Description:
Elements: H1 3-22, H2 27-49
Helix pairs in contact: 1-2
Amino acid sequence: MNPQIVIALVEIAISLAQNLGKGSVQGGATTAKMLLDIINKGVQAYQEHTGEPLDPNLIRPETTV
């Protein structure tokens, strides 16, 4: 995953948490925009990852407990 997208998501999440902590009436519109930003960054990360070759080293048999 692109580190810049991860950083952007963390920044948006922090802003969202701060906004929700304020509990302001105006916060509803800002919160909605932040949630849309999170969704858009998730879509961007998905699109960037789609089509990448699969690393066979990540596939391992399950171990029993």
